[in-house]
Write a structure and sequence with these properties.
The chain is mainly α. The chain has helices spanning 10-18, 22-44, 47-64, 74-93, 117-125, 129-140, 145-152, 156-185. It has 2 domains: 10-93, Orthogonal Bundle (Rna Polymerase Sigma Factor, Chain: A), CATH 1.10.1740; 117-185, Winged helix-like DNA-binding domain superfamily/Winged helix DNA-binding domain (Arc Repressor Mutant, subunit A, Orthogonal Bundle).
């Protein structure tokens, strides 16, 4: 099996990095750079800051790979590093407002709702911070509940509970907004 022609798993790449192979880490960067940059851009709405934070994440990741367990989920671990880097960024800049773009909730009737980004952002801001983060990781980060649980270091059932109540709250907020729109136009 030619390792150059076939894609290598994250675990194989991590082991190669531990063995001193810089190209293996470059492959991981290529694989996950866009995900990291998109995560940060959704948080700060600034491409330069998103690039800088992503670069810092990969520098931290490179230095931490030797400590990573061989069977670790690299993507979930990297997103935890992103989350921690973002929290550091917030603390260092004394920023508390977290913005995000679009959320597509997987609940009957919600998929067909056409909602502008500002409306979604306002609704997300009305969620508890942990619910907001779970929703962003699930729908913007395209992560599984298991991966989110690893990132946030909470049980998977708690992640599912936060998603359930966040979706319910978002539906209520959108239904209230629709009712207000009908009253204004009627």
């Amino acid at each position: 099996m030619d390792s150059k022609s076939s894609p290598r798993t994250d675990c194989q790449l991590i082991q190669s990095v531990k063995d001193g192979n810089q190209q293996a880490f470059d492959t991981l960067v290529e694989r996950y750079l866009r995900l990291c940059q998109a995560y940060f851009f959704r948080k700060v709405f600034n491409k330069e800051i998103a690039r800088d934070l992503s670069q810092e994440v990969f520098i931290s990741a490179y230095h931490s790979v030797p400590k990573l367990a061989p069977d670790s989920n690299f993507k979930a671990w990297l997103m935890r590093v992103c989350r921690n880097k973002f929290l550091d960024y917030l603390r260092s800049n004394k920023r508390r407002e977290v913005a995000s773009e679009r959320v597509i909730a997987h609940q009957p009737g919600f998929e067909s709702a056409i909602v502008q980004t500002d409306t979604i952002n306002q609704a997300l801001k009305r969620l508890d911070p942990i619910q907001q983060e779970v929703v962003e990781l699930k729908y913007l980060g395209d992560l599984s509940c298991r991966e989110i649980a690893q990132i946030l270091e909470i049980p998977e059932g708690t992640v599912k509970s936060h998603l359930f109540y966040a979706r319910k709250r978002l539906l209520e907020l959108f239904e209230d907004k629709d009712a207000q729109t009908v009253k204004k136009s009627g």
